[in-house]
Amino acid sequence: MGNAFGRDGVVTKIVEGVVPGGGLITGPIHAAAGNPIHAAQAAVAGFGTLAGAVVGGPVASLAVGAGTTGLQSIFTELGLEDQKKDAAVASLSSGHSEEAAKIVVEAGQQKIRENVHRLSAESGGRRRLRSCHGTYLRAYDWDLKVDMKTGNPESWENWYIEDWKGSVVFKAIHSPGKFLSAHEGSKDVSLVMHHPKSWEMWKPFKNDNGSWSFLSVHGAWLSADVDGRVYTVEKCREWEQFWLEWW
Protein backbone atom coordinates (compact mmCIF):
# COMPACT_ATOMS: atom_id res chain seq x y z
CA MET A 1 0.00 0.00 0.00
CA GLY A 2 1.25 3.51 -0.82
CA ASN A 3 1.68 6.35 1.62
CA ALA A 4 -1.80 7.48 2.67
CA PHE A 5 -0.38 10.90 3.56
CA GLY A 6 1.66 11.50 0.41
CA ARG A 7 0.77 13.99 -2.29
CA ASP A 8 -1.51 11.46 -3.96
CA GLY A 9 -2.48 9.57 -0.81
CA VAL A 10 -6.08 8.88 0.09
CA VAL A 11 -6.04 10.94 3.30
CA THR A 12 -4.42 13.97 1.63
CA LYS A 13 -6.95 13.92 -1.20
CA ILE A 14 -9.88 13.63 1.17
CA VAL A 15 -8.69 16.36 3.51
CA GLU A 16 -7.75 18.82 0.78
CA GLY A 17 -10.77 18.15 -1.37
CA VAL A 18 -13.55 17.52 1.12
CA VAL A 19 -12.79 18.96 4.54
CA PRO A 20 -12.40 22.73 5.13
CA GLY A 21 -9.41 23.52 7.33
CA GLY A 22 -8.15 19.99 6.85
CA GLY A 23 -4.72 20.83 8.21
CA LEU A 24 -6.16 20.67 11.71
CA ILE A 25 -6.80 17.01 11.10
CA THR A 26 -3.73 15.96 9.15
CA GLY A 27 -1.47 17.78 11.61
CA PRO A 28 -2.21 15.56 14.61
CA ILE A 29 -2.36 12.50 12.37
CA HIS A 30 1.14 13.21 11.05
CA ALA A 31 2.44 13.85 14.56
CA ALA A 32 0.92 10.62 15.82
CA ALA A 33 2.76 8.84 13.03
CA GLY A 34 5.99 10.38 14.31
CA ASN A 35 6.39 12.90 11.48
CA PRO A 36 7.42 16.17 13.19
CA ILE A 37 8.32 18.23 10.14
CA HIS A 38 4.89 17.98 8.56
CA ALA A 39 2.77 18.85 11.50
CA ALA A 40 3.99 18.81 15.04
CA GLN A 41 2.75 22.33 15.71
CA ALA A 42 -0.83 21.26 15.09
CA ALA A 43 -0.40 18.53 17.67
CA VAL A 44 1.18 20.50 20.52
CA ALA A 45 -1.98 20.02 22.51
CA GLY A 46 -2.43 16.49 21.18
CA PHE A 47 -5.64 15.06 19.83
CA GLY A 48 -7.52 16.23 22.93
CA THR A 49 -8.00 19.82 21.77
CA LEU A 50 -8.96 18.66 18.31
CA ALA A 51 -11.47 16.18 19.69
CA GLY A 52 -13.22 18.76 21.82
CA ALA A 53 -13.45 21.22 18.97
CA VAL A 54 -14.37 19.33 15.84
CA VAL A 55 -15.20 15.66 16.42
CA GLY A 56 -18.76 16.32 15.33
CA GLY A 57 -17.69 18.41 12.33
CA PRO A 58 -14.56 18.10 10.18
CA VAL A 59 -13.36 14.86 11.74
CA ALA A 60 -16.72 13.21 11.14
CA SER A 61 -16.64 14.63 7.61
CA LEU A 62 -13.21 13.11 7.16
CA ALA A 63 -14.54 9.74 8.23
CA VAL A 64 -17.44 9.98 5.78
CA GLY A 65 -15.22 11.18 2.94
CA ALA A 66 -12.59 8.55 3.59
CA GLY A 67 -14.98 5.64 3.62
CA THR A 68 -13.96 2.31 5.08
CA THR A 69 -10.85 2.06 2.88
CA GLY A 70 -9.64 5.48 3.98
CA LEU A 71 -10.19 4.70 7.65
CA GLN A 72 -8.26 1.47 7.29
CA SER A 73 -5.41 3.46 5.69
CA ILE A 74 -5.35 5.89 8.62
CA PHE A 75 -5.14 3.13 11.21
CA THR A 76 -2.52 1.22 9.22
CA GLU A 77 -0.40 4.35 8.69
CA LEU A 78 -0.44 5.17 12.40
CA GLY A 79 0.15 1.60 13.52
CA LEU A 80 -3.01 1.61 15.63
CA GLU A 81 -4.78 -1.41 17.06
CA ASP A 82 -6.73 -3.64 14.67
CA GLN A 83 -9.53 -3.90 17.22
CA LYS A 84 -10.09 -0.14 17.15
CA LYS A 85 -9.79 -0.09 13.37
CA ASP A 86 -12.50 -2.73 13.09
CA ALA A 87 -14.72 -0.79 15.51
CA ALA A 88 -14.29 2.45 13.55
CA VAL A 89 -15.04 0.75 10.24
CA ALA A 90 -18.10 -0.96 11.71
CA SER A 91 -19.40 2.35 13.10
CA LEU A 92 -18.93 4.11 9.78
CA SER A 93 -20.53 1.25 7.84
CA SER A 94 -23.61 1.50 10.05
CA GLY A 95 -23.87 5.27 9.49
CA HIS A 96 -22.39 6.41 12.81
CA SER A 97 -19.71 8.76 11.47
CA GLU A 98 -19.29 10.69 14.72
CA GLU A 99 -18.63 7.48 16.62
CA ALA A 100 -16.08 6.45 13.98
CA ALA A 101 -14.42 9.86 14.28
CA LYS A 102 -14.31 9.55 18.07
CA ILE A 103 -12.54 6.20 17.81
CA VAL A 104 -9.95 7.69 15.41
CA VAL A 105 -9.28 10.65 17.71
CA GLU A 106 -9.02 8.56 20.88
CA ALA A 107 -6.68 6.10 19.17
CA GLY A 108 -4.56 9.04 18.02
CA GLN A 109 -4.44 10.45 21.54
CA GLN A 110 -3.06 7.19 22.86
CA LYS A 111 -0.50 6.96 20.06
CA ILE A 112 0.78 10.48 20.75
CA ARG A 113 1.10 9.71 24.47
CA GLU A 114 3.12 6.60 23.69
CA ASN A 115 5.36 8.41 21.20
CA VAL A 116 6.16 11.46 23.32
CA HIS A 117 7.04 9.39 26.37
CA ARG A 118 9.29 7.14 24.29
CA LEU A 119 11.01 10.08 22.58
CA SER A 120 11.53 12.10 25.76
CA ALA A 121 13.13 9.08 27.41
CA GLU A 122 15.27 8.30 24.35
CA SER A 123 16.64 11.85 24.05
CA GLY A 124 17.51 12.19 27.74
CA GLY A 125 20.81 11.88 29.54
CA ARG A 126 24.19 13.63 29.55
CA ARG A 127 24.16 15.24 26.12
CA ARG A 128 25.67 17.81 23.80
CA LEU A 129 23.56 19.43 21.06
CA ARG A 130 25.38 19.76 17.72
CA SER A 131 23.76 21.88 15.01
CA CYS A 132 23.82 21.26 11.26
CA HIS A 133 26.61 23.89 11.15
CA GLY A 134 28.83 21.73 13.37
CA THR A 135 28.51 24.11 16.33
CA TYR A 136 27.51 23.21 19.89
CA LEU A 137 24.90 24.71 22.20
CA ARG A 138 26.76 26.56 24.98
CA ALA A 139 25.56 27.83 28.36
CA TYR A 140 27.55 30.63 29.97
CA ASP A 141 28.57 30.31 33.59
CA TRP A 142 28.47 33.95 34.73
CA ASP A 143 25.18 35.05 33.13
CA LEU A 144 22.03 33.67 31.47
CA LYS A 145 23.31 33.70 27.90
CA VAL A 146 23.34 30.81 25.42
CA ASP A 147 24.91 30.61 21.97
CA MET A 148 26.56 28.12 19.61
CA LYS A 149 30.27 27.36 20.01
CA THR A 150 32.57 26.51 17.12
CA GLY A 151 35.36 23.97 17.43
CA ASN A 152 35.61 21.08 19.84
CA PRO A 153 33.06 20.98 22.67
CA GLU A 154 34.18 21.67 26.23
CA SER A 155 32.46 21.68 29.61
CA TRP A 156 30.10 24.60 28.90
CA GLU A 157 28.61 22.58 26.03
CA ASN A 158 27.60 19.75 28.37
CA TRP A 159 23.90 19.48 29.22
CA TYR A 160 21.63 17.22 31.20
CA ILE A 161 18.47 16.49 29.20
CA GLU A 162 15.83 15.41 31.68
CA ASP A 163 12.61 13.57 30.87
CA TRP A 164 9.53 15.38 32.22
CA LYS A 165 6.60 13.08 31.36
CA GLY A 166 6.71 13.46 27.59
CA SER A 167 8.61 16.76 27.48
CA VAL A 168 12.28 17.44 28.16
CA VAL A 169 14.17 20.18 29.96
CA PHE A 170 17.74 21.24 29.19
CA LYS A 171 19.80 21.71 32.34
CA ALA A 172 23.19 23.38 31.96
CA ILE A 173 26.21 21.83 33.66
CA HIS A 174 26.75 24.88 35.89
CA SER A 175 25.73 25.11 39.54
CA PRO A 176 23.27 26.30 40.71
CA GLY A 177 21.00 24.78 38.09
CA LYS A 178 20.14 26.77 34.98
CA PHE A 179 17.53 25.71 32.43
CA LEU A 180 16.99 26.59 28.77
CA SER A 181 13.88 28.74 28.41
CA ALA A 182 11.84 29.95 25.42
CA HIS A 183 10.31 33.40 25.83
CA GLU A 184 6.67 34.05 25.05
CA GLY A 185 5.97 36.67 22.38
CA SER A 186 9.55 36.77 21.10
CA LYS A 187 12.20 34.55 19.53
CA ASP A 188 14.52 34.87 22.51
CA VAL A 189 16.05 31.86 24.24
CA SER A 190 18.01 32.18 27.47
CA LEU A 191 18.75 30.46 30.77
CA VAL A 192 16.66 30.72 33.92
CA MET A 193 17.61 29.76 37.47
CA HIS A 194 14.22 28.79 38.88
CA HIS A 195 12.60 25.35 39.00
CA PRO A 196 11.49 24.40 35.46
CA LYS A 197 8.05 25.63 34.46
CA SER A 198 6.15 25.53 31.17
CA TRP A 199 8.53 27.87 29.31
CA GLU A 200 11.38 25.45 30.01
CA MET A 201 9.52 22.44 28.58
CA TRP A 202 10.35 21.22 25.06
CA LYS A 203 8.72 18.49 22.99
CA PRO A 204 11.35 16.23 21.36
CA PHE A 205 10.88 14.93 17.82
CA LYS A 206 13.24 12.55 16.05
CA ASN A 207 13.89 13.22 12.36
CA ASP A 208 14.46 10.62 9.66
CA ASN A 209 18.18 11.49 9.43
CA GLY A 210 18.76 10.72 13.12
CA SER A 211 18.74 14.33 14.27
CA TRP A 212 16.33 15.82 16.79
CA SER A 213 14.09 18.90 16.78
CA PHE A 214 12.63 20.56 19.86
CA LEU A 215 9.32 22.41 20.05
CA SER A 216 8.65 24.96 22.80
CA VAL A 217 5.38 25.29 24.69
CA HIS A 218 4.74 28.41 22.58
CA GLY A 219 4.75 26.35 19.37
CA ALA A 220 8.16 27.49 18.08
CA TRP A 221 11.24 25.43 17.23
CA LEU A 222 14.70 25.69 18.77
CA SER A 223 17.03 27.03 16.07
CA ALA A 224 20.73 27.81 15.58
CA ASP A 225 22.00 30.06 12.79
CA VAL A 226 25.38 30.22 11.06
CA ASP A 227 26.47 33.17 13.23
CA GLY A 228 26.09 31.24 16.48
CA ARG A 229 22.80 32.77 17.59
CA VAL A 230 20.12 30.66 19.30
CA TYR A 231 16.42 31.50 19.11
CA THR A 232 13.07 29.98 18.14
CA VAL A 233 11.30 30.00 14.78
CA GLU A 234 7.87 29.03 13.47
CA LYS A 235 8.93 26.35 10.98
CA CYS A 236 11.20 23.35 11.34
CA ARG A 237 13.88 23.14 8.66
CA GLU A 238 17.59 22.26 8.57
CA TRP A 239 18.71 24.86 11.13
CA GLU A 240 16.21 23.40 13.61
CA GLN A 241 17.83 19.96 13.57
CA PHE A 242 20.32 18.90 16.25
CA TRP A 243 22.40 15.79 16.78
CA LEU A 244 22.63 14.53 20.35
CA GLU A 245 26.07 13.39 21.46
CA TRP A 246 26.98 11.73 24.74
CA TRP A 247 29.58 13.21 27.06
From TrEMBL:
Gene3D superfamilies named in the record: 2.80.10.50
GO molecular function: actin filament binding
GO BP term (any one): actin filament polymerization
Domain of life, source organism: Eukaryota
Annotated GO CC locations: actin cytoskeleton
Name assigned to this protein: PUD1_2 domain-containing protein
Taxon lineage: Eukaryota, Metazoa, Ecdysozoa, Nematoda, Chromadorea
